[in-house]
Write a structure and sequence with these properties.
This protein is of the alpha+beta class. 39% of the residues lie in helices and 36% in strands. The chain has 2 domains: 81 residues; 109 residues, Immunoglobulins (Immunoglobulin-like, Sandwich).
């Protein structure tokens, strides 16, 4: 009985020492795992991030934006360049007559009038555009030493073809002879039309 209890005590002591030694070996093994996991996650992260920030990711972003702006600006510049320039205002034609219609155009054109015609019209057709030009009609009697009959100016602002009408009036009889009307644009003569007045 004593031998059995000794054997049991001895076995228990051996078993306890084995358990303690086993536990002692496992305790140092547990701290070894955190450094391994730390080295795999933390150390490579700065190395992977640093080249991305310094090199490829940030640098192409600016050229991409600038190329987008340039590509958007290019069609706008092309549209401006493709837009035709507006033609300057020019006098295309001068027509004389003794009557005009509602559109200020001569309804009875002619270069010969009678002394009893009270009013003579000059219809000036222009082309092109202007924000504000001045047309002038200077009527002259050419017989003898010549005489200025009338000089009238009108402002014109147009973005295309237009008609401007001038008139000269005489409540009495016109002297028979040769006359002319001279059209000026902003002070520069651009057209002349001769006409005659005969006796009634």
């Amino acid at each position: 009985m004593k031998i059995a209890s000794r054997t049991t005590a001895l076995c228990s002591a051996v078993l306890a020492s084995l358990l303690l030694s086993a536990c002692g070996k496992q305790q140092p093994a547990a701290p070894a795992s955190p450094p391994a996991s730390a080295s795999t996650t933390t150390a490579p992260a700065p190395a992977a991030i640093a080249p991305a920030v310094a090199g490829s990711a940030a640098a192409p972003a600016a050229p991409a934006a600038s190329s987008t702006v340039a590509s958007a600006a290019a069609p706008a510049a092309a549209a401006v360049a493709a837009a035709p320039a507006k033609a300057p205002l020019t006098v295309a034609k001068v027509t004389l007559g003794d009557a005009v219609n509602a559109e200020h155009k001569i309804s009875r054109p002619g270069n010969s009038f009678i002394a009893s015609d009270k009013t003579i019209y000059a219809s000036v057709a222009t082309e092109g555009s202007s924000g504000g030009a001045t047309l002038n009609a200077k009527w002259s009697y050419l017989e003898g030493q010549g005489q200025l009959v009338s000089s009238v100016s009108q402002s014109i602002a147009t973005d295309g073809p237009a008609v401007t009408t001038f008139k000269v009036e005489n409540p009495d009889l016109w002297p028979a002879g040769k006359y002319k009307v001279e059209i000026s644009l902003d002070g520069k003569p651009v057209a002349t039309q001769d006409f005659a007045i005969r006796k009634s």
